Amino acid sequence: MSAFGRFSIEVVIMNFVQPIRDKRVVEAIRDYLRLRSERDYLLFSLGVYSGLRVSDLLNLRVRDVRGTHVEIVEKKTGKRKRFLIHPEVKKDLDKYIEGKHDHEFLFPSRQRKKSNGLPNQPVDRATVYKMLNKAARKFGLKNIGCHTMRKTWGYHLYMDNPRNLALLMQMFNHSSETITLMYLGLTQDMMDAAISKLSYA
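Structure (tokenized):
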């Protein structure tokens, strides 16, 4: 596939799922999920505080989060990744894993997998999608999907310090800063802001 073709496909995908732009809504969703499921609360919290892909979040085991940092090999890229467990999540995470065995999946499914009948498997992507969209409806959000957590993390890292853009590009494994801005929904934000300021008066 040509670089142009790949770029076009990326753009379509990027525009489909959006980050959660309001930090107050991120916190409200965390509170909402915490009242319903400690597992879902921590999955969402770790997602918006780590920038991990959902596939990597679901592959985490208890042993991976016992220390101050998580070290994994990314499922999609095969690259090693090491990141700090944010203090906002660490205390609740430590309490959550008390009494659990190192080999257990961090976010286990409550049911046997229909595909192989095995117990003690991680929750699947479809379940995460349903959880996120239920929360999205509660808070009036649109275009929310599994990539929303990762995009939310990147969006707020950038908004807190735009100098993070080059670092984010590298962390997302994007080929240009333009793609990173589009991925995070920032290009649309910039266009909307520019149009709203336009005046012929």
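Confidence is low (pLDDT under 50) at residues 1-14. The CA atoms of residues 98 and 190 lie 45 Å apart.
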